[in-house]
Amino acid sequence: MDYALDTNTIIHFMRGTPAVKGQREKAVHQGSRLIIPPFVDYEVRRGLFIKQIQSHEAAYNIICANCDMEDMPPSAWQQAARIYCGSL
After folding, report:
1. Torsion of CA 39, 41, 44, 46, to 10 degrees
2. What is the rounded CA–CA span in Å between residue 8 and residue 41?
3. Helix (H, G, I), strand (E, B), or coil: what is residue 76?
4. In what order do the strands lie in the sheet with 34-36?
5. What is the DSSP letter of 67?
6. What are phi and psi of 35, to 5 degrees?
7. Residue 43 in 3-state DSSP?
8. Less packed terminus of the chain by CB within 10 Å, N or C?
């Protein structure tokens, strides 16, 4: 299964949040691809430019090197919206 990462998940990766790190390791161990959609890349980079936190920028570069950058089809965005609304 592939996982499209959202901005909050990437922020937790950069901060080294143990639970998120464990989930990433589990997904990679299972052979899953981690995907960063273009709008998430934009949001993260915008935040990095604003806050200018060098350690987070370095961490994001490592994350990007280990993920695929690609967009998702409209059907995937619709499903993501349904999942998000169901979790509220």
Report:
1. -70
2. 12
3. helix
4. 3-4, 34-36, 68-69
5. S
6. -120, 135
7. helix
8. C
Q: Which amino acid is at 87?
A: S
CB atoms within 10 A of CB 56: 18
Identify the three-state secondary structure at position 66. coil
pTM of the model: 0.80
Mean pLDDT, residues 42-51 taken together:
93
pLDDT confidence tier of residue 84, bands split at 50, 70 and 90: confident
Q: Where does the chain show beta strands of DSSP type E?
A: 3-4, 34-36, 68-69
Mean pLDDT of the region 35-60: 91
DSSP 48-63: HHHH--HHHHHHHHHH
44/42 Cα distance (integer angstroms): 6
| Domain interval for residue 69 | 3-86
Which amino acid, residue 67? C
Amino acid in the structure at residue 71: D
